[in-house]
């Protein structure tokens, strides 16, 4: 099982996590391990040399990786999102969308490369627009034999380390069209090292300045204007794929607290036991919620009921991670606040869960609207993507 | 599926719930529905005319019944516990325990009667002892051809309505032996109507005074002193079987709030949407936790890891039910506080979950002990059962 | 000190609270005690025979009364609101508002009667309009020598027992004018016994049907259209005067839990101690918040900063009461769920705090708006009063 | 008023806080400001050139300083503890304790030096013992004309910057005697830079190795074995003096969130308003609790009821700070997670409150014991100091 492989790697990630966190540097060795393990091919169909995993498999892997290092798992999540979304464009769907044959060839080529050890980052967010595709300021223009893309991206996890980047941009000719490109690492992309954050410090989510010319095959789907369609087909990759990571972080916090309490012989304190007991139950419930959402994504991706599970997973995972990490630090006591103590890092990492889009407050609103028979997609004035 | 049958009955229960709650009277009509539906045979093996359900099937049924009326579901839970535990004494287990053949005949006879429409209550708890078998004050003595049982029981749900009662008692000859008897309704059992509680008012959990002579077949297992063995084999029936009921109550609260908010056209209030959204996610997570625990009970009953899931389920269900019902009442507003409004009842019913043994605080402690590598069974001075 | 007198009465209220709650009947004997104690004159200036208390004195009294019986304290709160608001119309203010001399005579007459043992209820809320003056449907018309008032009121605490009722109504001639009348008990007011609620059952907050002719002196202020002015001058009586009651209820819950735990000898349970300790601190903090708001109301009534304290008091008191009562019931265990146990009642009574207007959710929003430099009064579309 | 002076300094502290936090270096400039302001003499009687402040004055100052920089306020707190405790040894008390005249001279000399710009740190905690005086491993021996003190201290805020250090040590000759010395900065104290923590990074709470000879005047009180007596006389300096700091941190978090939300124009988001509104009320309630405890410390230091308020203040301040900072970060969104953003630091700083002794869990237990009529001092096996 793919999750077993991830579980095997996690202790190595744990051993390195403190240092990557301290320096805020990219987990190069973790990614070397991932490459060797073949997990870059996790979402790649077996016919292209991959593991042919579904979303539930992914969630199980992400949870285990995050028990090792949440930041590593978050960057991996981006790669999984790209390869997962590409794999989701089946031949049938391609046919239905009227995609040209070259697009399928490009898709296969990107996926095959992933199975062989390439990995992809996502350069989607922009200052101001966040990750809303409809507000992207990055522009592209057709050239003789490809596209010229220009703009600035932010929060690009793994920037400077990926083999290629998924870049969303708007057509200069027809601003209503937002397209996605897979841009190879190289001269046209320059990294501005802006990432220096409270938690998840090792994701290297720096700014990326894009001024690059790519050939036709870089246009995902081979047809312009597909970005919004894909976002609506696969909201789980934009909302819920983080969720498994944060449950893994929460479980790591419980584990670290248990280890700390045992080492300090504090088991006799009832308040400590109660904190750990309640945290254990909360993490277990959140884990089930994420796995159920993932299962449903595999069964009926994009369905209204699936999306509700996706939002539930995001909401429960984010709130649980922050609450659990805070309580575990309180269970462990002041000595766990020293930098270098796993709980010190996990407390910071865990806080990010609720804030990553869709935030906990947004998920709560969407769930409320849906429970009340409304459609969150048509709610309010701001477009969701 | 058995849960479908329960789902079919729930709306009828809803329609009657207010009145049973108001008067604190036993839900006679709900039980007539249950009898007709065949659900008394839920836990009875098919070879004896029953539905042959497992614990997970039971949990699904209990959840649906509780969406109708939590009190009805709680009484049903007691019957399911008795029949479930009886069914759990398989021929193999009976052999291993050295049970006499007559005990198996009696077992089959009780189970067949259940499939035919009899239902059983549990007269276990005593004032002071709670439900701890090791502290039972009710005594029994051997007579020429049976037993004479004498004592007082409390919190006996369905008292005065069941066809027979599971009575735990201690041997007068050898106080170390605690046995369980199935005592038919009749003269030796007198009901003292003491039940008048905040919530779950329709369970009729009155006191029962026992002064009765029963024949040999009433001794469950046919051998004295088995009560503790059974409790340890099947802790799920003593701890977790309530859990599904309280998740059903919590879901009913969300449903009632949605109905109320829609009727009053309050959907535009962001605070109301946020409350409903968060409640929806919390109930979904609790539901999954209960179902996972139930699944594991079927797979590996009594295992250490199964027991942890059982405690998680009880803890999460109890806390979620109380929190969700309180928040839903706040979402609905003062008009939902009128007696007769579903949320008014559900708020009271939901509070009982954390307090039923094992309480939330106890489950948290056990989970903490287990996470810290300890054994909750050997913890502290008080015996658990 | 007036609070001492209230503290003296509280144990008597406690002794009667269970029965008034059970039957949902008005606390006649508590009110006889209040009359004898002179507390009906609490807010009446000393020159008119009263105690000349300020808002902080009132809050201290309300807290103590509520430790006895929250319902009694809530009804008393209505009387205090009427007499407090009347006393707040000083001669200077009357002059500034251009009130006629007869209005001041009427004011003094009503206040003197209160000091002599009369008490007043409030018939403000209407179905649909809530307590928003701007949406009142009750109408009045001028007659030869007075007014004819006609309409239906709801949530009138103490209905059928008060000596007179403050009735808000809209002018039939000029619907923009909302006026308040003090209508003597009698034929023109008929009580419809609709109050049958989860908590605060003894307030007798029934519906009142008004079809009555009153003389000129009944018009408070002697000038039509003053209702909104008064509401804006004294928002504390419409928002915060409940707050002290709910802190008293919360403290009563802690006291009842302590008594229960001591009687059952459960002090050795760490989870019980932790619950009581946290509840004790929360109630203490809420109490201070209410008293600070009250102090500021006396110093600078209606000021922006005073109003923020009023909302803080309402929010903190309401949420604390509900949380504390729920936790105390959990600390005490199942036996405290029996009807007749103080905690059973207090759990229900406490829930009402957050729901009474302004609700906790509304207070949170107003406080957020104010913190962000906005003016909650001009926020949104719905008028506040 | 002394708090005004602190309020005047706070904005300067804010401006420097990010950098001191980033580098984990001691806030040298803040302390220069404090020296110039005369606040080192805050707790020094006016007859010795100080400000003659009481505990409530201190709490008001600490709150304002912490709105600037919590770490600066925490170090200042240590100095205030030393000077406050010294000032608390009045001539009357000295007489009652039988202190020698030289001790009073030494006291006055230390206090006069503080008023003139010296400040004192506390070297109390030890690894393993925490701050429990009864378990100190640091030893002292009498020498010809003084004492030789030897041992290792941890968590010494301001280590390397103070003019003298309060060192607790146990008599080698009679281990039952624990004494306190004021040791001048210099050769006998060596700083091991161990402090590198999640939050409150600028306190420089490093380890201090003590191997020093001091003269007679260094022995506080002039009599050996007084440390425990003082601890019991002034528990507020060991428990509650942090509380004001953490409420200041919490208020700073609300202020920072308001500033962030206004700058980003997010006021229209209801979830943001609700978070800020609830946080504002919680901080206000916590602030009142701390000020009430401080007021009572001035009125009746060491009384049982005063101590309860001290524990309440510590509990409410610690939990409020952590909860509020977490929620404010969630209100502000991902951009506030960047290092250098005030909320990023405040989230880390705020977490320390509940963990500093007495921890929130310990305070809750003590409060529970006290509410149940017990005496927390005689509770359990572990000595409190």
TrEMBL record, chains A, B, C, D:
<dbReference type="InterPro" id="IPR013107">
    <property type="entry name" value="Acyl-CoA_DH_C"/>
</dbReference>
<dbReference type="InterPro" id="IPR046373">
    <property type="entry name" value="Acyl-CoA_Oxase/DH_mid-dom_sf"/>
</dbReference>
<feature type="domain" description="Acyl-CoA dehydrogenase C-terminal">
    <location>
        <begin position="242"/>
        <end position="353"/>
    </location>
</feature>
<keyword id="KW-0503">Monooxygenase</keyword>
<dbReference type="InterPro" id="IPR037069">
    <property type="entry name" value="AcylCoA_DH/ox_N_sf"/>
</dbReference>
<keyword id="KW-0288">FMN</keyword>
<comment type="similarity">
    <text>Belongs to the DszC flavin monooxygenase family.</text>
</comment>
<dbReference type="InterPro" id="IPR013786">
    <property type="entry name" value="AcylCoA_DH/ox_N"/>
</dbReference>
<protein>
    <recommendedName>
        <fullName>Dibenzothiophene monooxygenase</fullName>
        <ecNumber>1.14.14.21</ecNumber>
    </recommendedName>
</protein>
<dbReference type="InterPro" id="IPR009100">
    <property type="entry name" value="AcylCoA_DH/oxidase_NM_dom_sf"/>
</dbReference>
<dbReference type="Pfam" id="PF02771">
    <property type="entry name" value="Acyl-CoA_dh_N"/>
</dbReference>
<feature type="domain" description="Acyl-CoA oxidase/dehydrogenase middle">
    <location>
        <begin position="121"/>
        <end position="211"/>
    </location>
</feature>
<dbReference type="GO" id="GO:0003995">
    <property type="term" value="F:acyl-CoA dehydrogenase activity"/>
</dbReference>
<dbReference type="Pfam" id="PF02770">
    <property type="entry name" value="Acyl-CoA_dh_M"/>
</dbReference>
<feature type="domain" description="Acyl-CoA dehydrogenase/oxidase N-terminal">
    <location>
        <begin position="1"/>
        <end position="84"/>
    </location>
</feature>
<keyword id="KW-0547">Nucleotide-binding</keyword>
<dbReference type="InterPro" id="IPR036250">
    <property type="entry name" value="AcylCo_DH-like_C"/>
</dbReference>
<keyword id="KW-0560">Oxidoreductase</keyword>
<dbReference type="GO" id="GO:0050660">
    <property type="term" value="F:flavin adenine dinucleotide binding"/>
</dbReference>
<dbReference type="Pfam" id="PF08028">
    <property type="entry name" value="Acyl-CoA_dh_2"/>
</dbReference>
<comment type="pathway">
    <text>Sulfur metabolism; dibenzothiophene degradation.</text>
</comment>
<dbReference type="GO" id="GO:0004497">
    <property type="term" value="F:monooxygenase activity"/>
</dbReference>
<dbReference type="InterPro" id="IPR006091">
    <property type="entry name" value="Acyl-CoA_Oxase/DH_mid-dom"/>
</dbReference>
<dbReference type="GO" id="GO:0005737">
    <property type="term" value="C:cytoplasm"/>
</dbReference>
<keyword id="KW-0285">Flavoprotein</keyword>
């Amino acid at each position: 099982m793919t999750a077993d492989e991830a579980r095997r790697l996690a202790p190595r990630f744990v051993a390195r996590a403190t240092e990557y966190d301290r320096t805020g540097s990219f987990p190069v060795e973790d990614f070397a391990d991932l490459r060797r393990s073949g997990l870059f091919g996790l979402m790649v169909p077996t016919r292209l040399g991959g593991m042919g995993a579904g979303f539930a498999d992914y969630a199980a892997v992400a949870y285990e990786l995050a028990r090792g290092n949440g930041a590593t798992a978050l960057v991996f999540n981006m790669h999984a999102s790209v390869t997962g979304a590409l794999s989701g464009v089946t031949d049938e769907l391609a046919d239905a969308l009227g995609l040209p044959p070259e697009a399928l060839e490009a898709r296969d080529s990107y996926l095959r490369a992933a199975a062989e050890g390439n990995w992809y980052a996502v350069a989607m967010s922009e200052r101001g627009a966040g990750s809303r595709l409809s507000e992207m300021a990055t522009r592209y223009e057709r050239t003789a034999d490809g596209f010229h893309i220009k703009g600035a991206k932010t929060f690009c996890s793994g920037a400077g380390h990926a083999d290629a980047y998924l870049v969303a941009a708007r057509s200069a000719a027809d601003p209503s069209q937002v397209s996605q490109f897979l841009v190879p690492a190289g001269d046209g992309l320059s990294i501005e090292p802006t990432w220096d954050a409270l938690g998840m410090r090792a994701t290297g989510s720096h700014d990326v300045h894009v001024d690059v010319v790519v050939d036709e095959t870089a246009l995902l789907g081979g047809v312009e204007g597909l970005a919004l369609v894909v976002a609506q087909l696969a909201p789980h990759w934009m909302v819920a794929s983080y969720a498994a990571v944060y449950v893994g972080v929460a479980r790591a916090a419980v584990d670290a607290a248990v280890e700390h309490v045992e080492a300090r012989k504090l088991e006799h304190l009832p308040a400590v036991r109660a904190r750990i007991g309640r945290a254990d139950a909360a993490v277990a419930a959140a884990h089930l919620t994420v796995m159920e959402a993932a299962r449903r994504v595999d069964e009926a991706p994009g369905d209204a009921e699936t999306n509700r599970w996706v939002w539930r997973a995001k909401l429960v995972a984010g709130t649980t991670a922050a609450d659990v990490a805070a309580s575990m630090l309180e269970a462990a006591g002041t000595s766990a606040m020293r930098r270098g103590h796993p709980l010190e890092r996990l407390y910071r990492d865990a806080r990010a869960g609720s804030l990553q889009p869709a935030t906990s407050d947004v998920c709560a609103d969407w769930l409320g609207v849906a429970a009340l028979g409304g459609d969150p997609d048509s709610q309010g004035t701001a477009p969701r993507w």
